[in-house]
Amino acid sequence: MGELGPEAELRSLEVPAALHGERLDRVLAALVPEFSRSYLQQLVELGAVRVQGAPALKSSQRLKAGDGLQVELRPTPQTQAFRPEPMALDVVFEDAHLRVINKPAGLVVHPAPGNWSGTLLNGLLARDVQAGQLPRAGIVHRLDKDTSGLMVVARTRQAMDALVQRIAAREVSRQYLALGHRPWAGAPERLVQGAIGRDPRNRLRMAVVDLAQHPGKPAATGIELLQNCEQGCWVRCTLQTGRTHQIRVHMASLGHPLVADELYGGKPAAGLQRQALHAFRLAFEHPVTGQALEFRAPLPEDLRQALVDWGLSYNES
Length: 317
Fold this sequence. Notes:
The protein is of the alpha+beta class. The chain contains six helices and 15 strands. The strands form three sheets. Strands 5, 6, 7, 8, 9, 12, 13, 14 and 15 form a nine-stranded mixed β-sheet that branches.
């Protein structure tokens, strides 16, 4: 196994009779219950597990009662994900209970495979010692990596619980600006109601699904045309529910995928290389004081320039 790192721990174990014939990962999960099975599988892949003195070959190998195991409990990217990382954050409001942040495009909100560090959560942990005492560092809703705009983050458990309840009760107003392909046709305002679930043909995507045939959740988005042009449409979207990729999926379902949203059929255009979606307005009642709060985030420069390229304009007043 080599020399142990400063944060590694070496454990020696023996397979009990009750686990004779079981897979290695299941034995490890039973004997080291404080760690997840996926974490232990990662250790096997890293060569940090030995069976009878020899490196384990794979998590599925079967063990015998009395087999000796040595496990080097190393830090992995996943176990190190919830660490403070100082970063510049655009904070538009802050008090003892909550913080409102204007997230730039490109910043991942929460650690996940492929992005175990450099996330908003890491930045919050570095900025606020209280964040370490809260689930998900106080994050109560998310924006996709390439969506810019406003998010509210709790600083106390009281505020977090109240914000989660209000979002579920649709008492937090979230509005977005989006640039879609192809000119808008039909009524300038419409309510799109289409349940959203995993796309049965591509598990990496979400899709509008028939709940009688596929799992999903009801979803509703109000969409208002702001301006049209030959290349596409500039719209304002109001969430009535908060499903994964909801606006992106609903716009695509109407035949207006977001510019540069290649996952849902959009193409880079107007100088944009990221999906043309910006959370510009956030309004809610303060979960502790009851004060009515409303915030607006100005258009990022890439979206502003995209409008110019397509001959569109936006009045932020």
